[in-house]
Write a structure and sequence with these properties.
The complex is a heterodimer of chains A (232) and B (266).
Chain A: H1 9-25, E1 30-35, E2 38-44, E3 52-56, E4 59-65, H2 67-87, H3 95-112, E5 119-125, E6 138-142, E7 148-151, E8 154-157, H4 162-171, H5 178-190, E9 204-210, E10 218-220, H6 223-230
Antiparallel strand pairs in A: 1-2, 1-8, 2-9, 3-4, 4-5, 5-6, 6-7, 9-10
Helix pairs in contact in A: 4-5
Chain B: H1 14-21, E1 43-44, E2 47-52, E3 55-60, E4 64-66, E5 69-72, E6 78-80, E7 85-88, E8 91-92, H2 93-114, H3 120-133, H4 135-139, E9 147-152, E10 157-163, E11 169-172, E12 175-178, H5 182-192, H6 199-216, E13 232-237, E14 240-243, H7 246-265
The chains are: A alpha+beta (232), B alpha+beta (266).
């Protein structure tokens, strides 16, 4: 008869965290940044499987790590937002509540299951000047252990992001025009350790939350549109 | 907890999501019937969908009645259910408006979950399901008989469907109308309709038909010049949904009335 070994909670948490970090580090990175007309999400992703998605009128989602895991989280977010919007009103669906939900779910999964989720996600909410109290942008980052961060300006997720982070720190300014913001996002991604030093528009996935758009503010840019905006 | 990583509904239908996870939120009107007397509800009246050269036009009057009284003079009976589709309601206003709202959410939900919108035919089919679900309420008098229309971006044309209370769905090749004044509207459209008519001609046919329906049917509201209330007219084309402005409707209505005046004076 075999006895299970005793593993201290500290050790177990450390092991899980290390496992999750390794999993996330294998994937590509993703940059979320504010520009003068809203919020942009830029990812290196030559595939058809999206990392970025629309959640609700003013809210978008992005994930890195294991596709099956963050895509399931994205769908859960859409379900949550649509149910809340149906039950109450469209203005009642807010990014903060959604980020909290993700934090709870990812945190629970980290604590309870043997294998933690190998994901890192961002929830972005663009401000709407038409509604009092809803004017500001918000960017939330949720880590593999459920830790949630409220960020301003920009946010980088994915594997080995030190270079991207420092590039963004040096070059990011508030109210950049769209073209400059997307160029900055692309430059940052090109600095990733496992990144492509010359990213063509076809290898980029770019989605915007545009403040001035009526109703659903989410828009996915095609490679052609992107080429035009980047001036390539 | 209703939202977890492992459990919960995994499909792309909003109606099924409500059914399986939030049954208390699903609109259920089957308890409205009191046995002796029907609960008074407001009713919508003449709506129509007409194909034309660039797509399809959907129009409806603005009057809702409750028995012999006016319930609302400026109700909306034509709804954009997404960027390329329109639904016009006739019948019990409450459930019909709820149905239009649910349909819009369903299309959006599918598009966000799957990353691609439903095809127009798929959208028409979803509405069949909602009508079928409403059948118990319809048997008790809360009948909803909508028109669904939209621009089919795969086939590059406008399409229009009519429904019956069982959820049966029939695609029309030219136009259709439903509601208490629909008989008169259809008779009127039959005479003025021309295939692939340009926009001004199609709009004029529609406004003539609405005027005829309002003339013969007490439940259909015509143009209310006193309050400046005009029928709702929406157009679905390749470039999306467009509202016909009241000014344009007013000027076409003037022409229609002028022509009739001239006829009665000669």
């Amino acid at each position: 008869m075999s006895f299970p070994f005793y593993v201290s909670p500290e050790q177990m948490t450390q092991d899980k965290a290390e496992f999750a970090r390794k999993g996330i580090a294998r994937g590509k990175s993703l940059v979320t940044l504010e520009f003068d007309g809203g919020i942009a999400m830029v990812a290196e992703n030559p595939l058809n499987l999206s990392k970025i998605g629309e959640i609700y009128d003013r809210i978008s989602f992005a994930g890195v790590g294991k596709y099956s895991e963050f895509d399931r989280l994205r769908k859960m977010g859409v379900q949550y937002a649509d149910v809340e919007g149906f039950r109450f009103s469209r203005e009642d669906v807010r990014g903060k509540a959604l980020a909290n939900l993700f934090s709870q779910v990812i945190g629970d999964e980290f604590n309870r299951s043997i294998k933690p989720l190998e994901v890192e996600i961002v929830v972005a909410e663009v401000g709407d000047p038409q509604f009092v109290g809803h004017e500001k942008n918000a960017i939330y980052k949720v880590q593999f252990d459920g830790a949630i961060m409220d960020l301003q300006g920009y946010c980088v997720i994915g594997g080995s992001v030190e270079n991207l982070q420092s590039h963004m720190e040096r070059n990011f300014r508030a109210d950049l025009p769209l073209g400059d913001a997307l160029r900055l996002g692309r430059e940052a991604l090109q600095r990733a350790e496992n990144g492509n030093p010359d990213l063509p528009p076809e290898s980029l996935e770019v989605c915007l939350l545009e403040r001035e758009r009526r109703g659903r503010k989410f828009r996915r840019l095609s490679a052609d549109e992107l080429r035009g905006i980047l001036g390539l | 907890m209703r939202f977890g990583f492992r459990d919960g509904y995994q499909g792309s239908s909003f109606a099924e999501l409500l059914e399986s996870q939030f049954p208390h939120l699903r609109p259920d009107l089957s308890g409205l019937y009191t046995g002796e007397r029907q609960v008074p509800t407001s009713h919508g009246t003449t709506v129509m969908g007409v194909r034309f050269a660039d797509g399809v036009i959907v129009a409806g009057d603005r009057l809702a009645t409750m028995d012999y009284r006016v319930a609302s003079r400026d109700i909306q009976k034509v709804y954009a259910t997404d960027g390329y589709s329109l639904m016009a309601i006739a019948g019990a206003a409450g459930p019909a408006i709820e149905m239009a709202r649910l349909l819009g959410i369903q299309f959006e939900h599918y598009e966000k979950i799957e990353g691609e919108p439903l095809e127009l035919e798929g959208k028409a089919n979803v509405l069949s399901g909602l009508i079928r679900q409403n059948l118990p309420a319809a048997m008790q008098g809360l009948v909803v008989v909508p028109i669904f229309a939209g621009y089919d971006r795969r086939r590059r044309l406008g399409r229009v469907w009519k429904y019956e209370i069982t959820g049966g769905r029939y695609e029309e090749k030219d136009f259709d109308s439903t509601g208490s004044g629909s008989l008169f509207a259809r008779e009127s459209l039959k005479k003025s309709y021309r295939e692939n008519a340009p926009r001004p001609e199609a709009l004029r046919s529609i406004i003539e038909a609405l005027t005829d329906a309002a003339d013969e049917d007490r439940g259909t509201g015509g143009v209310d010049t006193l309050r400046g209330l005009y029928p709702t007219i929406k157009i679905a084309t390749e470039s999306g949904i467009e509202d016909v402005p009241d000014e344009e409707t007013a000027s076409i209505y003037e022409q229609v009335i002028e022509a009739r005046r001239a006829r009665s004076q000669s």
